[in-house]
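User: Structure please.
Assistant: Input sequence and predicted structure:
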Amino acid sequence: MHQGTRSPTHKWVLAQYMQVAVLARLASEGARVALVVLAVERTGSAGFGGALVAALLLPGIVAAPLAGALADRVRHRRLFHAGCLGCYGTGLTVIAGLIGRAPAPVVLAVAGMAGCCTPLLTGGLTSLLGDLLPPTALVRAFSLDAVSYNLAGITGPALASVLAAAAGPATAVVALGAAATAGSLLVLALPLKPRPGPRAAPHHAGLGATTALLFRDPPLRSLTWASGVGQLGIGALPVVCVLLATHYRTPWAAGGLMTAMALGSLTGSLAYAWRPWGTRRPERTVATMLFATGVPLAAVPWMDSATAAAGGFAVAGWCTGPLFAALLAGRDRYAPQGARTQVFTLGASIKSTFAAGGAVLAGLWQAAGPGSLLLAVAACQAAGAVLGVALLHGHRTRADRPPPKSSAKC
């Protein structure tokens, strides 16, 4: 039996999981840069590089619900998740060989097929933590999982750029594919037992039932839609940062402000992993931190330098660390046993859709100026917080309640 969060067994399992998560997410984040660089080198078209990235990302948003539903039903989960990671890594390697040498539709089709596996690199992997660790270890585990997202977001593009400059963009893409493939092999070492046969298996919620749960169950709907509205603003920030760089006449701010926010998020996740709080009601923690994220962003329009703005972005990023960790913990706590992966992948898909919408709206309204757009971003955080609290009203029906989880696992 597991004895608690201090057990060496728990630490070893979490370390194994983190190796998989970091490798998979490094590959996913780095590929967005490496593919564009390779497309420009071989075809001279940055537009084709952008199309490749879109082909890699958009199918994942669409396929997330189906991928989650399948992951909740498959019996041999290690083989399933290893296969998905391996397919993603192989897809990157094949794309590296095809760009500039095969018709563009063929290359885009391969990227699309690899992109269908991306939900299992993000929410799909995170959903495994509930089966790998006992409840007493999960809050810290979700915080560290949030760190893996932050590390990948910061170092993935940088690693891709360094590899492309040192060994060529094709080598960079292949290396990232190899990282995902290595992660697929490490998945096989995770202590995930096969699910029971069909007769002994727990009830599996259908895709429609799980989607309805995100509207009907108070804690889950609060977590899902509050974080989605907040992400509508966050998705606009890359456009806002480019406008701020022009406003401050400081070219480094275009990417530097987002880097400051990512570093702040990393430190916030680490701090929350060290000393978590608000763990009894993670949905309230999410609402609180959404509001806190908006406060420093709302102050940036009155800052007179890019350096001061970077400080505001870093503080906002720090708040997103506990926010994301609490979001993951809440999904795990409130998801029914037979729909856990679906809740994770559906939630991630909804957040990605809101973020894409935010980017589009920022592009359409860029004439409003960076100050007005930043205030709109901050308003999205406040609106998400208010919505999250409002959606908590209501009672969970018997069908909505997840089955009780034992305090220890064998």
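Confidence is low (pLDDT under 50) at residues 1-7, 397-401, 403-410.
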